[in-house]
Design the sequence.
């Protein structure tokens, strides 16, 4: 237990931040193995979980959907000679999304598979937006 506390306290944030994901997982396995041998796993929690990748897969999937929608908007605008103020409808984007999706995409947070509840397409000059988590699910 003393080794574990020393490792997590004195290893330094910069050292843990520079470690690769694989080495952090290996270190976490060693720490959990040692903690379980001493019966200290429950009060300890997961000491290295704070340094994992901060983006859950649902957020990444939503951002990828926004990228697909933005790409479809650009293709639609190019093929139809549209101006930056024009706004496509979901049905306008279906031909450009059909190779990646059988239906229009929806945010993983959505309770239904309704595109209109998940995303706002916006004008060509603006990026598409997620309606369910607009402050988190954002195109860079």
Sequence:
């Amino acid at each position: 237990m003393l080794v574990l506390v020393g490792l997590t306290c004195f290893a330094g944030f910069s050292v843990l931040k520079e470690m690769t994901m694989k080495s952090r997982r290996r270190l976490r396995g060693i720490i959990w193995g040692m903690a379980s041998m001493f019966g200290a796993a429950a009060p300890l929690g997961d000491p290295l979980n704070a340094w994992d990748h901060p983006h859950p897969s649902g957020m990444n999937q939503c951002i990828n959907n926004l990228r697909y929608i933005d790409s479809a908007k650009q293709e639609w605008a190019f093929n139809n000679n549209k101006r930056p103020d024009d706004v496509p409808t979901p049905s306008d984007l279906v031909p450009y999304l059909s190779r990646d999706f059988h239906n229009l995409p929806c945010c993983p947070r959505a309770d239904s598979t309704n595109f209109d509840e998940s995303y706002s397409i916006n004008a060509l000059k603006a990026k598409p937006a997620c309606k369910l988590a607009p402050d988190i699910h954002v195109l860079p």
About this structure: The first strand starts at residue 119 and ends at 120. The chain has a mean pLDDT of 76. Residues 2-51 form one domain. The two ends are 43 Å apart (CA to CA).
